[in-house]
Amino acid sequence: MRTFSDKTRKLIIASITAPIAIVPALFIPLVIHDVVNSLFNLGQSIYYSMLAAIPGWVVAQVLTLVFGLPLVIFLQRSNKFRLVYLLPISAIPALLFFSISGFGLTITLMYIYFSVCVAYTFWFTYWRVSNGT
User: Fold this and answer.
1) Could you say which DSSP state residue 29 is in?
2) What's the whole-number average pLDDT of the chain?
3) CA-CA distance, 132 to 116, in Å (whole number)?
4) Residue 116 has what pLDDT?
5) Pick from 81, 92, 87: which is nearest to 11 by CA?
6) More confident residue, 15 or 132
7) What is the dihedral sign for C-alpha 29, 31, 32, 34?
8) Contact of 117 with 63, CB cutoff 8 Å
9) For the segment 94-120, what is each residue's pLDDT rounded down to a tens digit?
10) Half-sphere exposure (CA, 13 Å, Cβ side) for 103?
11) pTM value?
12) Domain range annotation of the chain
């Protein structure tokens, strides 16, 4: 007996797994920064990315459940659940928070990057979850 419909099951799986995209989203820029500045230390990059990934994952999980999930349900009901609509809208929480808090452009762009990474992972996971898993 199935408790949830296929669409609901896909939403739950994508909501839980998408915020994990914060880990590589943090790691890749740190490695690029180290390579560009000739400071390459893989152990240190992994340490700092993991240190920042834990609170980043918590924030991403909360924003995905509070903002992302209702947004996806709205886009599905209006037949607009496509990447071209999802990615720009996913930057709204970062823009709102940083317009209120007054942080600089660099920090705002970083959080927009993280929001887009999580939104893409949500979209990808939602469409790639097969009926058998």
Assistant:
1) H
2) 85
3) 28
4) 93
5) 81
6) 15
7) positive
8) no
9) 888 888 887 788 888 888 999 999 999
10) 13
11) 0.84
12) 6-128
